[in-house]
Amino acid sequence: LLIGLAAAKAICYSLNIPLIGVNHVLSHMYANFIENPDIKRPIVSLVASGGHTSIYLLKENDEFEILGSTLDDAAGEVLDKIARFLNIGYPGGPAIERISINTQRINFYFT
């Protein structure tokens, strides 16, 4: 994160353009509007990634309220831990998806 910020500052300085900060988690929520621009707010949004697992109330004008969050690990960290255990690469989500694409379907029956 620090290296990325330093690089961004250097690029903006060299090009004489402003550096505009963005809220990373808010960007996760706004990604939904790219394909669905007509989503009406307020909405409840689940952000579940490698670093964040929280439920937000997304209001108008970039306002949001945290409704709940994990107390320890983010949900995505589970995938990273599984991938590390299986020695299939990092980050875990794409690594697990990559090996699961060519896997035969297995049915599990629960009683």
TrEMBL record:
Its EC number is 2.3.1.234. Keywords: Acyltransferase, Metal-binding, Transferase, tRNA processing. Signal peptide: none annotated. It catalyses: L-threonylcarbamoyladenylate + adenosine(37) in tRNA = N(6)-L-threonylcarbamoyladenosine(37) in tRNA + AMP + H(+). Gene3D superfamilies: 3.30.420.40. The keyword Acyltransferase applies. GO terms for molecular function: metal ion binding; tRNA N(6)-L-threonylcarbamoyladenine synthase activity. Residues 1-106 form the Gcp-like domain. Pfam families: TsaD. PANTHER family: TRNA N6-ADENOSINE THREONYLCARBAMOYLTRANSFERASE, TRNA N6-ADENOSINE THREONYLCARBAMOYLTRANSFERASE, MITOCHONDRIAL. This is N(6)-L-threonylcarbamoyladenine synthase. It comes from marine sediment metagenome.
